[in-house]
Amino acid sequence: MSLPENFCSAPFIQLQTSKDNRCGVCPYTPNRWQVQGTIADKWKSKELESLRKSFIENKQDPQCRRCWKEEEAGKKSLRLRLSEHKGSKNTDEIFEKYIEPFDIPTGRIWLMPCCGSRDEHIEAAPMVAEMAKKHHFNFSPRLHLLVWDMALKV
Fold first, then answer.
1. In the chain, pLDDT over 70 holds for what percent of residues?
2. Both 44 and 90 in a single domain?
3. 139 - beta bridge partners?
4. What's the rounded Cα separation, in Å, for the pair 138 and 149?
5. What is the number of domains present in the chain?
6. How much is the pLDDT for 91?
7. Domain check: are 5 and 44 in the same one?
8. Are both 57 and 95 inside the same structural domain?
9. What is the pLDDT of residues 46-78, one digit of tens each?
10. What CA–CA distance (Å, rounded) separates 150 from 71?
């Protein structure tokens, strides 16, 4: 089964939070929603579930208008870049294309496996850790997957 054309992986794999109980799923929509409670409450919030549902139903959610506008203008949006190298093992190309041109200090870069379950994490983590070692990046496991398993059941 293939993913819908308008699908974005961000609300399924990441969450950004702030001190004032605001949260969002990507740098283009930081701190979008005010959600009280724990990280798990934010992850299971009606706002995030609604966004996930819109992507599963192949809708262009208006909250994500920046990506849609970039794509309409012929640019590669963050939504497209998020999925571009998922599972890629060509680390040199990724490094040369997305790290070196911006002169980002390697000590400021953190890598985490892109996965949705404990089993996927166990499979992907060694490759990601080796990539981090090769380029002198930081590595972090996805502890919520190791502790609670499936990402959507946090």
1. 85
2. no
3. 111
4. 23
5. 2
6. 63
7. yes
8. no
9. 998 899 899 989 999 999 999 999 999 999 898
10. 31
What is the Cα–Cα distance from 32 to 17, expressed in whole angstroms? 10
Tokens 């059941």 found at = 153
54 and 13 inside one domain: yes
Note the pLDDT tens digit of each residue in 120-149.
888 888 988 988 888 888 899 988 888 887
| β partners of residue 111 | 139
Residues 43 and 15 sit within 8 Å (Cβ to Cβ)? yes
Q: Are 18 and 8 in contact (CB under 8 A)?
A: no
Domain that holds residue 23: 1-76
Q: By the 8 A CB rule, do 33 and 2 touch? A: no
Q: In the block, which residue shows the tokens 């970039």?
A: 70
Nearest to 48 by CA among 29, 66, 67: 29
- Paired tokens of 76: 């590669």
* Whether residue 7 is found in the same domain as residue 43: yes
Residues in the chain: 154
